[in-house]
Amino acid sequence: MKQAGFPLGILLLFWVSYVTDFSLVLLIKGGALSGTDTYQSLVNKTFGFPGYILLSVLQFLYPFIVDPENVFIGRHFIIGLSTVTFTLPLSLYRNIAKLGKVSLISTGLTTLILGIVMARAISLGPHIPKTEDAWVFAKPNAIQAVGVMSFAFICHHNSFLVYSSLEEPTVAKWSRLIHMSIVISVFICIFFATCGYLTFTGFTQGDLFENYCRNDDLVTFGRFCYGVTVILTYPMECFVTREVIANVFFGGNLSSVFHIVVTVMVITVATLVSLLIDCLGIVLELNGVLCATPLIFIIPSACYLKLSEEPRTHSDKIMSYVMLPIGAAVMVFGFVMAITNPQDCTHGQEMFYCFPDNFSLTNTSESHIQQTTQLSILNISIFQ
């Protein structure tokens, strides 16, 4: 919302969700046309070994450009402990279907976090100063916003794994599942983006939790819930990376020993990356434009166009022809803009309205709000 402009941001969220829905169905259709059951084998059959290597690199890199947790008080210890205690054991599963209940818990926690963000939009939002350009229709950084949105919706790299875990998988059944999932996801994204942006407008950080004050007990609980969702979600990403390594170097099969060795290697490297990075915004942008965009816009469309024998006027082919150049443009221009104009990052420093002389709505009663607002006005005038 901050990068694209609030109205355009809402429209772009709907557009990216529609493209994601279309490309996920297109991906499975391509698998059915080519007789393949993995993303890599689909691209290998369609574009040969060069395409196979390119896709393998993208799928392998995706989990490594993720900064899982942004905890600044003992964050290294917490990330290391949670990785060894929870993430690694969950990642050692061989069957992705066993993570179904874990994913359900993660979804429930996401809903809980959304409730916290909505509550703070009501209690905190009216007391945060709004930036001058908060309500313009569009901003020049909209392409960067598309990259972040693409990151939010990307799930193509593990779509075949999930598809194969369905009971009696068919394209029709997959399509119904995807339509329902995308609808739910886009509304969750819209509520998160709207409530977060309405609260902080131009002060919104790449990681929304950086905007809240450290003495906010409710938001601290939300941070904890977010950390748990990452712990429960990351094993699905590890499945994909491990599958890439197995297919490229081991012919698709890993012995029990190599299964453990590869999993530990993947988790270790990803954890080291997360320990070194504390800015989520640039991570989301680069991941979105370099990995998510080709996996969503470019590769599914290119595979379908080469495999399908439908006429060029067929709706799926027209949409694919549109998605290809748009994806390429987002990838190139988004990368350049992410490097030249990165998102704001506090590096763990509190925002100006969290200073001791500022107001606090985090653990206060309504009667205290009136008293502390006077202090906030003084502090805001100094900031301006």
TrEMBL record:
Pfam families in the record: Aa_trans (PF01490)
Database matches in InterPro entries: AA_transpt_TM
Principal localisation: membrane
Subcellular location: Membrane
Stated family: Belongs to the amino acid/polyamine transporter 2 family.
Species of origin: Theropithecus gelada (Gelada baboon)
Protein name: Putative sodium-coupled neutral amino acid transporter 11
Keywords, in A-Z order: Amino-acid transport, Membrane, Transmembrane, Transmembrane helix, Transport
Organism domain of life: Eukaryota
Topology versus the membrane: Multi-pass membrane protein
Function comment: Putative sodium-dependent amino acid/proton antiporter.
Range of residues in the leader sequence: none
UniProt domain Amino acid transporter transmembrane: residue ranges: 79-339
GO molecular function, one term: L-amino acid transmembrane transporter activity
Transmembrane segments: 6-28, 49-66, 72-90, 102-122, 142-166, 178-200, 257-277, 289-307, 319-339
A cellular component term, taken from the record's GO annotations: membrane
Coiled-coil annotated spans: none
